[in-house]
Hints:
This protein is mainly α. It has one domain (about 1-110). It has helices at about 1-25, 30-55, 60-85, 100-110. The mean pLDDT is about 90.
Amino acid sequence: MQLIGAIITLLGSLFLFLGALGALRMPDVYNRMQAGTKATTLGSILSLLGLGIILPAWLPRLILLILFIIFTNPISSHTLARAAHRVGIKLTDRSVRDDLEQEALEEENDA
């Protein structure tokens, strides 16, 4: 059981590393946020789950932390991205479409 927990924790660490790498390599704030959020959510969950397998007495508390991460990480990322868009941080030139811009234009036309 210790080996399985260690492997899952190592896999979580790999996802956390890939999230950090994505945050460095992506072209704009929105892509960085997306790469960081998805990879760190999965990486944190796997790391905590592996730790819970290694130390079963901690598992109930770690499951609560996992649930907290599942609910808060995507919501906070979404909120930060919308705030960045509202402030006027531009997308990269390679972006194909901007749904929030379309949404704002439609709201202006309806008003």
